[in-house]
Amino acid sequence: MEISTICIGLILSLVLCDLNSVNLNGSEDYVKQRAGFTEDRTGAGVSTQTSSVKCKLQGTTRLPVFSMDGDYVIGGVLSIHYNMHTVKHDYTTMPELLRCTGSINTRELRFSRAMIFAIEEINNSTELLPGIKLGYQIYDSCASVPVAVHVAFQLSNSLDPVFYTGDNCSQSSMVMAVVGESGSTPSISISRIIGPFNIPQVSHFATCACMSDKQQYPSFFRTIPSDQFQADALAKLVKHFGWTWIGAVRSDSDYGNNGMASFLDAAHREGICVEYSESFYRTHPRSRIQRVADVIRRSTAMVVVAFVALGDIRILLEELSLVPSPPRQWIGSEAWVTDTKLLRFSFCAGAIGFGIERSVIPGAAEDERLCDGTEDIKTLQSPYTDTSQLRITNMVYKAVYAIAHAIHKAVCQERNSTTHCDKFTRIESKEVLTKLKKVNFSRNGYDVSFDANGDPVARYELVNWQKSESGSITLVTVGHYDASLPIGQKFKVNRNITWVDGGTQVRSTKAII
Questions:
Q1: Burial 231-263 (b: 16+ CB within 10 A, else e)
Q2: Which of 54, 71, 81, 192 is the most core-located residue (most Cβ within 10 A)?
Q3: Given this model, what pLDDT does residue 284 score?
C-alpha cells in the first residue's frame, strides 16, 4: 500500500535529511557561503523587521551531490543510490536523518554526468543561450519516495535557510525546471509537489501512462515514450510470434501495475490468454519473491512477459537462479531488457523486448585520463564508463536541451539575424513551462518535441539476448517499432532471432485435451 504523498510531505517538513556517508560533492561550507549565514538552520518561524519579513525554512537543508551556480539553475533528481537507511520511529523524539545506503548505482551516476555534460556543452555554445550560464543542483533520491519529496520541496525553495521578502514568505522557485526522476512512482511524487508552483519537470525514465493525464500532471513532460505505446508494442510482438498462452510478472509499483494493466488489455484484444499474473517489489519479504519464482517454475506457459523495474527483476532472477527450472522465453520491458549487468543470467539467453533507441552523443566518450600513471580506464567494465549503447543517457541529454531551449525562448530575442540574450532578465518557472510545450528541435539526428500530453513520439528497438561464439551474451538489435507509422508498418523484424536454449521459435499455446 502506497503512502499518501501529502502525508509524506507533512512528515518530511519535520524530518531532517542528510547525505549518505559517500558525499560526491558539496559541503556544509557551501550552504553557508550561499546563504551568507552561520546561524542554526533547524529553527522555524517568522519575525517581522522594519521593511521586510524574515523567513526560515523548517528542517535541515539537504546538500546536492553535484552543483554549480548559474544565471538560471536546472534541478536534477536521480537514484544514484538504490537504498535508503530506514529505522523504526517511536515519535517521542525527532526522527533520525534519512540517509542513502549501499553501493552507488553506476548507471544513474552516468545519468548525472550526462546532465552535467549537456549543461557544460550549452554553456560553451554560441547559438543556444549565448552569454548566459546555466547552473545545476543534482540530488540523490536513494530511489526513495520520502527523499524525492523532500528534495522536491527544497527545489521549490532554495538552499538558503533564511531569506527576506517584502511582506510574506513567498519567493520565486530556486530552479527553472527539474530533470528526473528515473522511476514513475518518485516522479509522480515530485510532480505533485512542484506542479502547483508551475515548475516544469522533464523525466528521462518515468514511463507510466498515467502521467500523460494533464489534469493530474500539468507540468510533467518526458523524453521517453509512455508505457501505453510499449504495452501495445509488446502485445503485437507476442501476437506476431503466435504465442497465445503466456505468464505475466510485474513490479508492484506505478510502473509495473499500470504498464501490465495496459499490456493485458492490449493482449486480450489480440486474443492472448494469460495463465498467471504475479506482482512483487524489491522490499517485499523473500517469501513473496520465492512464491513468484515457484509460480514461474510450475507454470505450463513457456513465455513470460515481465513488466518489471530493474531493481526488482534482478532480485527475481537471482531467486530463479538458485533452483534450476524449465527454460522460459523472457519478454522484457524497456526498464531492464537493455541493461548489460543482467546479461550474467545465462538462463535468460534468448530474451527479447523493446528498448529505447541506441544513440551517439558526440564528445561523451570515455574519460581517458589516468589515475596514477598505470591504470587504463578503458579496461573498466562498468555501466558508468560504457558509452557504446547510450539509450536512457540520451534521454537525460535531450531533457536538458529541451529545458535549455525553453529558457532560450523566454529570455532571448532575435535582433537583425542575431540572438540577444539578457541574463538579467528575471523569468518565472511558469514561463519556461509555457515555452516547453512548444519546443521543437533536432539534436544529433534526433527530433525533440512534446505532444499535448507532454509525450514524445514513441520509437523502440527490438533487442534480443544472443550468445556469441565465445559463449557470452550480447544485446543485438533485431527489429524496430515506430508508433508514428501507419497501421501494418509500425512493427518490423529485420534480423534473425535467437530463442531460449538456442532453439527455433518457441511454441507457447495452451494444450487442448
A1: bbbbbebbbebebbbbbbbbbbbbbbbbbbbbb
A2: 81
A3: 95
